[in-house]
Amino acid sequence: MSCPCIKGRTVFRFQMFSNCSWYRVCRRETYRIKSTIYHALHRSRIELEDLIRGDRSRRTKVVANRLSTLLRLFDYILTNECPPENIQIPTISETSGCDENDEDVHVVCDFCGADAFQSFFECHTCVPSNSESSASATHGNGYAICPACYSEGRSCRCEIMKAVQCRPFKVLVQERQKTIKVLRDCEALEPSPRFDFEQEKKLFSDDRSGVFRAACVLADQRRQADARTCSIPSKSSHIVPSTWALYCRKCHSARCYLHLATNFHMHSVEALLLHDKDRENSSYHQRHVLLRNSYGSKLPAFLRATENGTVPDASMRSVYNASTFDRCKPMNPTFMKLGWYDGRADIVMINNDSIEGGADASDRIEESPLSSLSSDSGPVANSPPIRGTLHPSSNEAQTRLQCHDSDPVFTETTA
């Protein structure tokens, strides 16, 4: 995999820091952007080490500048792939015996189609027992959801998914440390340029980012089974599962993630990371009050940044995408549940009654409102596709107010 050119890095920067709406609408990732940046960083670092050891030339400065740019992008990746402290996350490399840097480790999110470069959530329970993934039960073979989707409420049917990483996180951290060292060595030999690096401790403790850490918090909360009331001023309150809402001790009320985004302009990732930062929820309270009052004034600048391809405010980007892109097309809807921000889902599936037939077929249909979408994980020859739209509520006008309080309704037409 060759190092990206200047134009290529501009595309990466735009896709990673700008709209990033493709995972909201579920558009399969083609270029494996995070993986490309990681391997480009690794090879550029080795190239710079060779240049420093050998006869330095003008190319040394060029490679150093390129490596510095890649490092900033890689830092963004690390921030959102960092696991919670003091938690042991199983890895594919440990269970499968493959090399930690094996480029063949490739997990794709079954909901949005994104490349799960480092972290994902996996379920073997919802997968049929006769499938290969359930039989082998090895990490990377189950129903996979990327952290971005999982942190927005998307999941498998049972919602109890286990966090997995492709390789030990320390492998990525060590690559960063080696990159910083070679850039420092370059600084010692060249009067310019000077490189600025984020301190490692600060990089991995950002309260406003860290998608995988937030998703792990949610995964832990999903083991609870009680309910909460979402209280919206001047509007009807409604009961939601405890994992759909956060209680604010300062406000003396709970609010669901959908209303946090639409009414308070706070995304679930930021809310999950800030909520338990202090006992009284002070940080969480101050932040959602600030965002509610400042979102409108900051929106024009955010929109200009996205149009220009510059780096927009991360908090604004997340909540804007969640509020704007509420229609999705899940890649593998067989075992999925929609997220809090999914207003509707376009479903294209294979009609495979021959596989679903059997004594337990009717039982599976009664299990869940989504089980009528069941199909085998692979395509079936000579089976016509089923197309339709899945709504969280039969009445779209009430969906926002009721916060998915009604069962999903699926209307299908056979092509």
TrEMBL record:
Name recorded for this polypeptide: Uncharacterized protein
Ranges of compositional bias, category Low complexity: 368-377
Disordered: region residues: 359-415
Polar residues biased stretches: 391-401
